[in-house]
Amino acid sequence: MPKKYVYDFEEADYRNKKLFGGKGASLIQMTQLGLRVPPGFIITTEACKDFFAPRRAEIAELEALLEKQPPPEVRDQAIGKLFALINGLDLPQGLWEEVLQHMRRLEEKVGRKFGDPENPLLVSVRSGAAVSMPGMMDTVLNLGLNDQTVKGLAKQTGNEWFAYDAYRRFVNMFGRIVLGIDDKLFSSAWEEIKKKYNAKEDPDVPLEGLKEAVERFKEIIRRQYGEFPQDPWEQLKLAIKAVFRSWDSPRAIFYRVAEKITPDVADCTAVNVVTMVFGNMGWDSGTGVVFSRDVATGENRLYGEFLPVAQGEDVVAGIRTPMDIEEFRKRFPHLYDELYKGVKLLEKANKDVQDVEFTVERGKLYFLQCRNAKMTPLARVKTAVDMAKEGVITKEEALLKVSPDHVLQLLYPRIDPKAKAQPIAKGLPASPGAVSGQLVFHPDDAVRWAREGKKVILARVETKPDDVHGFYAAVGILTSRGGMTSHAAVVARAIGKPAVVGAEALVIDEAAKTMSVGGQVFKEGDWVTIDGNTGNVYAGVVPTVEPELIPELEELLSWADEVRRLGVRANADLPEDAALARKFGARGIGLLRIERMFRKPERLDLLRKVILAETREERVKHLEPLYRMLKGDFKEIFKIMDGLPVIVRLIDPPLHEFLPKPEEVLQQIYEAKAAGRDTKELERLYARVKALQEANPMLGHRGVRVGVTYPEFYYYLSRAIAEAAAELKKEGHNPVVEIMIPQVSDVREIRYVKEKGILPALRDVEKETGVRLEVKIGTMVETVRAALTMDQIAKEVDFISFGTNDLTQAVFSFSRDDAENKFIPQYLDLKILDADPFETLDVAGVGKLVELAARTAKEVNPKIEVGVCGEHGGDPKSIYFFEKTAVDYVSASPFRVPLARLAAAQARILGGGKADRE
Ligand code: PEP
Ligand code: MG
Question: What's domain 412-545's superfamily in CATH?
């Protein structure tokens, strides 16, 4: 049996968007719901695929070339070849016969004949793929008109002006779309005619002008192509082919690449042949677009516009100003009522806000298309919650309608889309939010300027932990080096400061206090704007729009909390972060990076003394005052998180990160000598700093290794934590404190630091205070060996937490500070990697290790708690994966907590493994 390629609107299944395309499916659905839809039929996407089939291999090769966006000469040549290939193709076998049958049926249905000079049937031939690709493919209107049928149309409608208006539009469109003639030729001819007849707008052109336009357009076609085809059947055949061809128009190819529309999502276009209805028949006619709710604010009212005496393309082209839908309601109350009812019916049937195209022909309303509306994040959240409350959708469906990105976008200021500013450089969007400030190049300057009430952006080549005071003082952070998990990025995200990192085009000279790019030089105090949502950097102040924490979002997230299995905690290091995290719904702290507490100068000073000390006694001498200083911060944070777990990680980074660079010390020695000062201390410092230098600091003397070599260090840190907890308990609070050991690779490291540092501290504090402490002890899993020896490690600890940043670095052997700027972009381009593994967990490699280690941990220690505290804990796709493993909770920076709550709920509903959303 030959394939069936053509379906009437009445006979098809609207759920099969892959076969009928989105537009086709909507025509089927609206017809079957009883809305007034002009009769018609659909040629399936299957027909389009079979149309291309004979030259598929060559076509695919040219598509692949165009997808890479080659230089214009190469592109134009490729398009020329591609279109020549496609133009040489015939419609697949049997298709034309089927079209003829359906055209006959259509003629019977509407009581007009195609090509009939007295009472002609006219159709539109419209594209429509499985997913909406607005404006990317082609459509031909008013098809079937020729020198004879135009007279029939005039008679039939009693409106000669209208008939010729339709004809001039058709000849123009046919020439442009089907025959590929440059539209400028038509539009300049049209402009001349308008001028000749003193017509301000198109409807002012008199009948003779329209007739003249038809003749001139036909002449253009004659010169460019040959005689304009008068036979409507030939017009139809050519138009169907042209719509098929438009699947491969350069803009459609570009759009598919940009929107990641792969063949499994949409493959080829359907063709919709629909009886024409005319919005240009007079002032009781027109065409419009309406949304079932306000797509900017989410308000439950129709939102849209209507253009009288017009056809669809006039609205899109914006040649005349349409009337607001409110105005339409006042002028045509009955039509408005009918439209409202239809739109709401569609909203209910499709369980989403609808974007509906309609036409009014002589006071009669026709529905031409519907689809789910695209909305601002604000409207997306509000409408999802409202629809769930109205019973249009369930709470679970509401949770799936909002993407985690929407939540993120709602919490940060954004560049005002109306600003249309041009960036001077682009880096990585390390921490969301857009902000303007005056440039400073040193953290101390940031603090000083901020004290004077100035808004500053701290620009650095890269950042170190002891820059962090500058982070707090600045409104945003900009670096020319570093990746998404570089220090600047992690810290900025943690404290919710907008940051752009690794903007390599910028030449930042910290000493000269200048930043230059492409010949432009910025000095200290110059204003710049950074957009941490996109990575763009702008000169001057670009206006931003402030975020709103709308009550609907809070409500939606409370529904998410009812559904999700995964817990959500926060990575927070300071009291203000903890407060924000709690406000955003974190159920505890999954990672408190202790090193951030050393940001205050007096503490950093003591820490340096500890590091530089050569004996245990000397170290203890400085640790004593240091731990007392930390205790206060711990108390504050534990109090904020009262009743919820707080996991404090013992010190992790390589020690030399807290020390000055050797060359800086040398410089000081040189200066001291020149001034005749004693240099003994400085020389000792230099020797120690040199001794601490390492070839591979990331793989060096850090984390638990410091705890093993200097157990007193871990003793005093644990003591600060334990004393804070004990004091709070005495004060009647309920601190839930846990201690975490970083960088472990062997269970014996854990045993050693527990015995020599952590447990003695806890015992001493219990003894001294008389308070019984129940402090859980756990480890990070961020080395491959820790993951692989989980059967031993899990028996030794109460909890584990995957440090997926370091684990990714270790599994790939990619430096987390360099990879994203050096080669990952090219790896992504070449599709060697599907995603940046520092952003989205590499399921095949790192994921396998997480899955295995989490499962093993639970097998050997069923009570063990398993978390993730790397950046992936705040990444939706990674969260969808963690749902499928034995991971109990994720921990994300405070600003990502709401997003993680939503993603965890979606993961639960969908059973994990969900790929892209919206
Ligand atoms: C990690 O490695 O994933 C982690 C959370 O630790 P840090 O980023 O502090 O190295
Ligand atoms: Mg780590």
Answer: Phosphohistidine domain (3.50.30.10)
Which residue's alpha carbon is nearest to atom 1 within ligand 1?
A: 803
Question: Is the minimum distance from the CB of 804 to ligand 1 under 6 angstroms?
Answer: yes
**From the annotation, which residues make up the binding site for Mg(2+)?**
782, 806
Nearest to 313 by CA among 226, 190, 149, 216: 190
756: exposed, middle or buried (Cβ count in 10 Å: 0-12, 13-18, 19+): middle
Same CATH fold assignment for domains 147-230 and 412-545: no
- Residue matched to tokens 């063949």: 263
Dump pLDDT digits (tens) for 141-154: 999 999 999 999 99
Q: Which of 413, 285, 355 is nearest to 26 (CA)?
A: 355
pLDDT category of residue 918 using cuts at 50, 70 and 90: very low
Question: Which helix H or strand E contains 347, and what residues bound it?
Answer: helix 333-350
Spacing, Cα 804 to ligand 1 middle (Å): 7
Choose, from 487, 622, 656, 872, the residue flagged as catalytic.
Answer: 487
Single pTM value for the model: 0.80
Q: pLDDT for 535-594, tens place per residue?
A: 999 999 999 876 656 789 999 999 999 999 999 999 999 998 999 899 899 999 999 999
- Give the atom of ligand 1 at the shortest distance from the alpha carbon of 490: 8
Question: Helix, strand or coil for residue 23?
Answer: helix
Task: Write the DSSP assignment of 895-909 as a string of letters.
Answer: GGHHHHHHHHHHHHH
167: nearest Cα among 219, 130, 101, 122: 122
What CATH number matches the domain at 552-596+647-655+707-909, 3.20.20.60, 3.30.310.50, 3.40.50.740, 3.40.50.300? Answer: 3.20.20.60
Q: Helices marked H in 414-503 — which ranges?
A: 443-451, 468-473, 487-495
- Cβ contacts of 672 within 8 Å, gap of 6 or more: 678, 679, 682
592 Cβ contact list (under 8 Å, min separation 6): 571, 572, 573, 637, 646, 647, 648, 649
Q: Among candidates 385, 524, 520, which has minimal Cα distance to 454?
A: 524
What does the pLDDT look like over 505-532, one tens digit per residue? 999 999 999 999 988 999 999 999 999 8
Per-residue pLDDT of 620-646, as tens digits, reads 999 999 999 999 999 999 999 999 999
In degrees rounded to 5, what are phi and psi of residue 428?
-90, 140
Domain 147-230: which CATH number of 1.20.80.30, 3.40.50.1000, 3.40.50.300, 1.10.10.10: 1.20.80.30
Q: Is the CB of 803 under 6 A from ligand 1?
A: yes
